[in-house]
Write a structure and sequence with these properties.
The complex is a heterodimer of chains A (113) and B (109).
Chain A: E1 5-7, E2 10-13, E3 19-24, E4 31-38, E5 42-50, E6 53-56, E7 65-71, E8 74-79, E9 88-95, E10 103-104, E11 108-112
Parallel strand pairs in A: 2-11
Antiparallel strand pairs in A: 1-3, 3-8, 4-5, 4-9, 5-6, 7-8, 9-10, 9-11
Chain B: E1 2-5, E2 9-13, E3 18-26, E4 32-37, E5 44-49, E6 53-57, E7 60-65, E8 70-75, E9 84-91, E10 97-99, E11 103-108
Parallel strand pairs in B: 2-11
Antiparallel strand pairs in B: 1-3, 3-8, 4-5, 4-9, 6-7, 7-8, 9-10, 9-11
The chains are: A mainly beta (113), B mainly beta (109).
Chain lengths: 113, 109
């Protein structure tokens, strides 16, 4: 079975550029989560969706960050404009209903120069 | 919100046992998870506790005491491949996970 699929795996870009991260959750999972991981702050929840609807975006750091889930099989996290402090590994995770655990994608390693 | 504490680092010898403690303070509790994360990789699910007691899964066991806000992950018969970061995560009433900073376990030959 395919797991959570994220793209790109690595992204290096200059500050000020727009960055779009993509995620395909596991088929049948109705929850999707976006996390950011850094050495300083660990793994932080940015936003999560249930049935394609954003439920809690309180972890989104500022207006430069936005996330969408146009359908059950695709989500994007966009940063515009990007800044060096946005450099981190961004993970997408999904889970099914009930007590199921979250399953993580391989992450996108983002470097903003 | 959640406040989750776990040791930063632990070192043990191959074949030995290591216990990673996790204490938490939470405004709502709906289960505790342990994840393993190898360097440069994604976290992978290890165990889940929602009721008090011990859950055993092969070489790994996890314990929960809700009244004490305490859990531990027990790794037995340590192997070199168990060298990784172990993340304690608490799920609140809204099904959000809050993660601890992680415990880096180093297994030495």
């Amino acid at each position: 079975d395919a797991g959570v699929i994220q793209s790109p795996r690595h992204e290096v870009t200059e500050m000020g550029q727009e960055v779009t991260l993509r995620c395909k959750p596991i088929s049948g999972h109705d929850y999707l989560f976006w996390y950011r991981q850094t050495m300083m702050r660990g793994l932080e929840l940015l936003i999560y969706f249930n049935n394609n609807v954003p439920i809690d975006d309180s972890g989104m750091p500022e207006d430069r960050f936005s996330a969408k889930m146009p359908n059950a099989s695709f989500s994007t996290l966009k940063i515009q404009p990007s800044e060096p402090r946005d450099s981190a590994v961004y993970f997408c995770a999904s889970r099914g209903p009930g007590e199921q655990p979250q399953h993580f994608g391989d992450g996108t390693r983002l470097s903003i120069l | 919100g959640q406040n989750i504490d776990q040791p930063t680092e632990m070192t043990a010898t191959e074949g030995a046992i290591v216990q990673i403690n996790c204490t938490y303070q939470t405004s709502g509790f709906n289960g505790l998870f342990w994840y393993q994360q190898h360097a440069g990789e994604a976290p992978t699910f290890l165990s889940y506790n929602v009721l008090d007691g011990l859950e055993e899964k092969g070489r790994f066991s996890s314990f929960l005491s809700r009244s004490k806000g305490y859990s531990y992950l027990l790794l037995k018969e340590l192997q070199m491949k168990d060298s990784a970061s172990y993340l304690c995560a608490v799920r609140d009433g809204d099904y959000k996970l809050s993660f601890g900073a992680g415990t880096t376990v180093t297994v030495r030959a």
